[in-house]
Each structure stands twice: as C-alpha cells, then as structure tokens.
C-alpha cells in the first residue's frame, strides 16, 4: 500500500468521520457497524473534578478505572439488534440526534504493506431530542485509531465528555 500524504489522509478520515456521524444521526446502525473493526475497543471515560494542585489527570484511564461504557463489536452489535426489534424501551420513541465535529487533526500515522493506521483527535457535540420536552447535549473530544485496509474502519475509540455528571435520562444512543 502506497503512503498517501498527510493532507490526503486528513481529507479521507474527515470524510469517514462525517459519514459515520450521518449514519448514526440517520439511525442506519447496520451500515454503521461495518465501519467498526472486528476487534474494536470503544470506551467513554469518566471525568472527575480535581483541584489543579492534585497533579492527577481529569479522566479515569487505566486498567482498574471505570468507564461509562467499555464495549467491543459483539456488545455493540447486540445493542443494534435490540434497537432493531422495536422493543428497546430506552429508545421508545427513538432519539433524534445531530452530531457536529470540529478540530479534526491527525496526530500519528503508521504505515506498512498491509494497512495504514491513523491516530485522529477531534471535538464533538451531540444534541439529542426525544418526545416534546427531552433535549440533551454532550460535549467533548474523541481520540480514534482508524485503520485502512480495503476501507477505513474504527479500531479504537476513546470518548472524553466534559460533563462529570451525566444528567441524561439514559445513555442509550451511540456516542
């Protein structure tokens, strides 16, 4: 595989992330699943409020720390199957979501004969509306490892939300 230049990689990964956002907002979950690598690690880390003097990181990130979720493709696939049944009570009625991405930046590129691997960081806002009165927003950043073999896929995703307390009624939609 020939190494594309960084500008081309940024353009491809940006298009890929925009397509992913669109699929999720349009509830095209089966198509979205094809964008995930079989060995994906998908986590949303818990943030904590600390004094500046603590010297400790804001986010709980380590082997023994907790996450809001820590999933692989099997559990994500089961969630998609459950939503498809129409019996997913936390998504009745289904959430309407809009995703906005910004500051998409490539931080690392690894290349060999078989694949291209890219570390990309970006900011996001997700707005969710359900019923007439339920409206929520999440703000934060994502750090993804994207892999390109025949097509781009998400190999790893870490979601860092700004909110230390999630005030949503549920966290049933995909971040």
Structure description:
22% of the residues lie in helices and 41% in strands. The longest helix has 20 residues, at 6-25. It has helices at 6-25, 29-33, 73-85; strands at 36-45, 67-71, 96-111, 116-130, 134-148, 152-161. It is globular, with a radius of gyration of 17 Å. It is of the alpha+beta class and 175 residues long. The protein has a 6-stranded mixed β-sheet. It contains 3 helices and 6 strands; from the N terminus they run H-H-E-E-H-E-E-E-E. The two termini are 31 Å apart. 17% of the residues are buried.
Features:
175 residues, six-stranded mixed beta sheet, 3 helices
How are the secondary structure elements laid out?
Elements: H1 6-25, H2 29-33, E1 36-45, E2 67-71, H3 73-85, E3 96-111, E4 116-130, E5 134-148, E6 152-161
Counting helices, strands and paired strands, the structural category is alpha+beta
Terminal-residue CA separation: 31 Å
Number of strands: 6
Q: Give the H and E element order.
A: HHEEHEEEE
Amount of helix: 10-25%
Uncertain runs with pLDDT below 50, 5 residues or more? none
Average pLDDT reading: 83
Number of helices: 3
Shape: globular
Spatial order of the strands forming the largest sheet = 2-1-6-5-4-3
Cα gyration radius (Å): 17 Å
The main β sheet shows up as: 6 strands, mixed
Strand content: 35-45%
């Amino acid at each position: 595989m020939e190494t594309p230049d960084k500008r081309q990689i940024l353009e491809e990964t940006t298009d890929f992330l925009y397509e992913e956002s669109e699929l999720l907002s349009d509830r095209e979950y089966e198509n979205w699943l094809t964008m995930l690598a079989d060995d994906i690690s998908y986590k949303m880390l818990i943030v904590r409020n600390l004094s500046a003097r603590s010297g400790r990181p804001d986010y709980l990130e380590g082997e023994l720390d907790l996450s809001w979720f820590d999933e692989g493709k099997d559990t994500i696939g089961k969630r998609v199957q459950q939503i498809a049944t129409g019996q997913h009570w936390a998504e009745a009625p289904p959430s309407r979501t809009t995703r906005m991405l910004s500051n998409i930046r490539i931080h690392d590129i690894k290349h060999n004969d078989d694949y291209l691997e890219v570390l990309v960081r970006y900011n996001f806002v997700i707005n969710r509306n359900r019923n007439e009165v339920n409206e929520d927003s999440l703000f934060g950043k994502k750090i993804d490892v994207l892999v390109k073999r025949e097509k781009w896929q998400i190999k790893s995703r870490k979601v860092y939300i700004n909110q230390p307390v999630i005030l949503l009624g549920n966290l049933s939609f995909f971040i």
